[in-house]
């Protein structure tokens, strides 16, 4: 459901090369599990996660992660991300915690 709402809400947004390069420069490895990206292994390939699915893509709402983490996180609401991180026994990068604090305190 979240994906459908997001697609309709942000249909006109175009991701440009500079936007992706900024994310890649900031997030060298998967922000959730720390895995290096490998395009030859489907679960290790690079994806971009819409951190909060109710907000448009931006530097504060997009993180680079592996396909496996992105598929696992899927449509988890912002408030449940810490629980997901604990359940999966992940050691997220600092950017994840910063974005979580920023977005949760914003509410």
Protein architecture, described:
The protein has 107 residues and is mainly alpha-helical. It has one domain. Strands 1-2 form a two-stranded antiparallel ribbon. The model has no long low-confidence stretch (mean pLDDT 86).
Task: Break the fold down into its secondary structure elements and pairings.
Layout: H1 2-9, H2 17-26, E1 46-50, E2 62-66, H3 67-73, H4 81-88, H5 94-106
Antiparallel strand pairs: 1-2
Main attributes of the structure:
107 residues, 43% helix, two-stranded antiparallel ribbon, mainly alpha, globular
Give the structure's gist in a few sentences.
By secondary structure, this protein is mainly α. Helices cover 43% and strands 9% of the residues.
Please report the number of helical segments.
Answer: 5
Q: Helix amount, in percent? A: 40-55%
Q: In this structure, how is the largest beta sheet organized?
A: 2 strands, antiparallel
Nearest-angstrom radius of gyration?
13 Å
How far apart the termini lie comes to 22 Å
Tally of separate domains: 1
